[in-house]
Amino acid sequence: MDKHLITGGAPLEGDVRISGAKNSVLPILAGCLLTDESVVIKNVPHLNDVTTMMKLLGQMGANLTVSEGLTIEVEARGLNQPYAPYELVRTMRASILVLGPLVAKYGHATVSLPGGCAIGPRPVDFHVEGLRKMGAEITVEGGYIQAVAKNGLKGANINFDIVSVTGTENLMMAAVLAKGKTIIENAAREPEVQDLGNFLNMLGANIQGHGTSTIVIEGVKSLKGGTYTVLPDRVETGTYLVAAAMTGGRIVAKATRANILTSVLEKLEEAGAHIATGEDWVSLDMRGNRPKAVDIYTSPFPGFPTDMQAQFMALNTVAIGKGILTETVFENRFMHAHELRRMGANIQLNGNTAIIEGVPHLTAAPVMATDLRASASLVLAGLVAKGTTTVDRIYHIDRGYECIEEKLAQLGATIKRVAA
Ligand code: EPU
C-alpha cells in the first residue's frame, strides 16, 4: 500500500489547476446508460473512483474510449448485462447510481447493496422507496437489490425525509425516461445535482428546478447523444485553499468557480484569509499570518459541506483560539480526529461535536487514512507539522484527488509517494 511522506513547514505559493468534480462525473457516467447514442464527457478527473465507474459500465457491455485531454466517450448501446456486482459496489458506494438509469432504460437491474462505510451506515432506502413509487418491483435478497419494471417506470411524487445527494440523482435519472411527470421534493440542491440535470437536459431530457429543492421531470421517450464538460471540483478547490491558509501561504486556484464555494470562502475569510475571485479562479492570501479558529456546522448545500469538515478540523488544530465543529450529515465522520491527536492536536469529541483548541504547531507522526476527506486532512496537517509525517493507506486519497502530490509539490510542498 502506498504512503505519503510529507515534510512540513513551507508556505504554499503559486497556481493550482482544479480538476473536474468527482461527485459530478460519477452520476454523469451513470447517466450515459440512459441513451443508445454516443456521449462525450470532458474535464474528467483521473481518479480511482472514475476508473471503478468505467469498469462497472464496461462490464455491463458499454463501450468506453478514453482519449487525450481528459475526455471519455461512452456508448451504452451494446449493454447486455444490467448487473452491478458486490466486488465493485463495495469499493465505491456511488455505484448505486446505475440503479435508476438501468431500471428506466432496460426495465430490470440487479445491483449490490453498498453496505456500511467508514463514515457511517449510509443506507439506500430512499433510492429503493423512490423507485417503488415509480412502479418498480423491488426485492432485496442475498445482499442484492433486484428491480423490475416490465412496463417501464411511471412518474411519481417523491418527498425525501432527509436531503440525499445520490438519492436525488438516482431518481432524477430514473424519471427522465418514465411515463409522465415526477416531482421530487426536498431534493438535494448541490451543484453536482444541478450539473447532472444540465447534462441530462443536453441529452434531451425535460428537467426543471434542478438546483432548487423541487425538481420537476417530464418523462421523454428517449435521449440522444452529445458532449458535456464536467463542473470543477469544489471540494478539491476548498482543500487547496485550506492548505494555503494553514501554511500562511498565497495561492490561486484556477479552472474553478467561486459561486459553488460560498460557504467555504466565508469561513476562510473568517479565519483571516484575503480572498479574491474571478470568473474561473479563486485566490487566497494569508499574508504570512496564522489562521484564526472557526466554528463549522455542516449541512446540505448551500450550507457548509460535510466533505470540507475534516480539512477545517486540520486548520483549527493550528489556529489561534478554539473552534467547534458540528457534523450533522454523517454520524461517524470524525475518524481523522484520532489521527490528528497523534500529531499533537488538542481535540475533544462529544457526539457529533468536536472542540478544537489550536496549538502553535503539530509534530510529525505516522498516521493512517480512514476515508477520502479524512486522508486529505492528514496531508494538510503534515504540511504544517514539524518533521516528516507518514500517511498510510493513501488509496483513499486517490479516490478523489487527482495528482495530489504533483499539485502540492508545484505549490512548494515537500511531499512524495512511496510504495510500502
Ligand atoms: N440517507 C439515508 N437513506 C438513503 C440515503 C441517504 O438515510 O437512502 C442518509 C445518509 O445516511 C446521510 C444523509 O442521508 O446521513 C445524506 O446522505 P447522502 O445520500 O446525501 O450522501 P451520498 O449521496 O451517499 C454524496 C457524496 C458524498 C457527500 C454526501 C453529502 C457522491 C458520490 N457522494 O453521498 O461525498 O459527502 O453526498 O454531501 O456524490 C466524498 O466525496 O468524500 C463523499 C463522501
Explain this structure to me?
The chain is of the alpha/beta class. The protein is 31% helix and 26% strand. It is built from 14 helices and 24 strands. The protein has helices at residues 22-31, 48-60, 86-89, 99-106, 125-133, 165-176, 191-202, 234-246, 262-270, 309-317, 335-342, 372-384, 395-398, 404-410; strands at 2-7, 13-17, 39-42, 63-67, 71-75, 83-84, 108-112, 137-141, 144-148, 157-159, 181-185, 206-208, 214-218, 226-229, 250-254, 274-278, 281-285, 296-297, 322-326, 346-350, 353-357, 366-368, 388-392, 414-419. A 4-stranded mixed beta sheet has the order 22-23-1-24, with helices on one face. A 4-stranded mixed beta sheet has the order 2-15-17-16. It has a 4-stranded mixed beta sheet with strand order 4-5-3-14, covered by helices on one side. The chain is elongated, with a radius of gyration of 21 Å. The structure holds uridine-diphosphate-2(N-acetylglucosaminyl) butyric acid. Uridine-diphosphate-2(N-acetylglucosaminyl) butyric acid binds at residues 23, 26, 93-94, 120, 122-127, 162, 164-167, 306-307, 329-330, 372-373, 400. Uridine-diphosphate-2(N-acetylglucosaminyl) butyric acid (EPU) binds at residues 23, 26, 93-94, 120, 122-127, 162, 164-167, 306-307, 329-330, 372-373, 400.
Task: Give a quick precis of the structure.
By secondary structure, the chain is of the alpha/beta class. It is built from 14 helices and 24 strands.
Quick one: how many beta strands? 24
The number of helical segments is: 14
Give the oligomer, counting copies of the same chain as homo and different chains as hetero. single chain
How would you classify the helix and strand content by structural class? alpha/beta
Query: How far from one another are the termini?
Result: 5 Å
What value does the average pLDDT take?
96
Task: Report the uncertain regions.
Answer: none
Give helix % range.
25-40%
Strands in their spatial order, largest beta sheet: 22-23-1-24
Give the ligands present. Answer: uridine-diphosphate-2(N-acetylglucosaminyl) butyric acid
* Overall geometry: elongated
Radius of gyration: 21 Å
Report the biggest beta sheet as strand number plus sense, adding barrel if it closes.
4 strands, mixed
Instruction: Work out the strand percent.
Output: 25-35%
